[in-house]
Amino acid sequence: MSTKLNVVANFLGQGWTTLMNIGFVPVYASYLGMEAIGLIGFFASLQVWIYLLDLGICAAVNREMARYSAGQYTASGIRELMLPVEVVYCAIAAALALVAWLVLPALAASWLNPVVLTREMLIDSVRLLALALLARWWGQLYVAAIQGLQQQVWLNAFTSAMATVRALGAVLILAVYGGNLGAFFQWQFATAVVESVVLMLRFRRLLPAGRDATVFRLDRLKSIWRFAAGMFLGNSLGVAMAQTDKLVLSKLLSLETFGQYMMAATLASGIAIFARPIVTAAYPRLVQDIAGDDEGALVRTYHQACQALAAAVLPAAMLLILFSHAVVMVWSGSPSLAAQIAAVTSLLAIGYTLNGLMYVPASLATAYGWTRLAVTLNAMSMLVVIPAIIIGAKAGGMIGTAIAWILMNVIYVSLQTAFLHRRYLNAQKWVWLRDDVLRPLMFITLAALLLKALEPPELGRAGAVAWLALVWPALVGAAVLALPSMRQSLRHWMFRAAKSLPR
Known about the structure:
single chain
């Protein structure tokens, strides 16, 4: 499957899924209230922690499927690997479901600070949310496997369809049942189960058939345990850094104010959505180039992916950093909400931008199987981030927390790039910094500042839509002009279009 086709499919699919997930949040808030949004945000934060409990299995499966595509496994070998993986993963899911049902309601009741929601409503909602999260967690094993097999066009089409059904169905249920919180979460659980079952069945069709029955061999897990353990440790510490702000604020702030912070964080984290399609498509290709011992192809893949990452991330970042008030107005239609969360959205967007630019370099390290880098850097960063966020939250609330988030990412990016390029692709370090990061950043920043100076005052929702419709293409155009690979692709596309014209 073409990497470019996978990138396009990932952008369309993940972009649509994000639109469904984020775009309907104000609608949910109008039916359920800001406390319910705070509860959903609290569980969205917990979801990331829950996903870690796969013990690195999904990351290992993704890598091994890419290696299978590169000829590193036979058909029988990959089947023998996947059987014990599925058994162990299902066992973990069952254990987590039991723990979630028994423990999480008490945790939420003692941790959160609701005013409108009763204790009974909170406990019932938490149980349904926990089951929905675990149902989707189970499906992540098959998402990782399908991504590794580079069947990303089908995957994005399916997940986009499910996101649409989930969002529109939720709105319909809220309208019919008058904003019933229980009915909303029941729908989330039902769609999560359907999605995971279909993903499992699709993977089974993609897995090569064999003449003989696959033998269950637990010892086959030995081939992936070291990589999986390294990914688990690195991801655990990374999630701790990324989610500490939300856990701290969920305790210090009222549930309503925390709901406002989660809305700002939801918008800012959308930057990562622009990064994931690139790295999802590039990672299997990086693994294959390394497995084939083709350094020239690896260098090309690396720079093309980094430049595509900059072209995707930086325009979205500048839109949120400099035009956050207009973005919130378009999203929510509420001038008061835009005034409340625009500043914190801009600050959080800076941190997410720094984090997003590291997606491809971090994938290069894991493609080589070097998980110790993430473990070491995340452990070092934790010594800074936890006290910084606590101090920032107590001193400045949402704004103080966002500033601490920026400082953490500045430290992390500096250390990661230094260590990574010292070990791999050392000759490409300055090429990466100059061509893949600083040049597009300069072009896009200058274009964004010029447009900011021209921004009309007091934009309503319709005016904000029209203004952003002008700003967004201008920032994307600046990115294309700044990046060599983007310019080359544009020239190639224009040449082919010109040739296809009738003479």
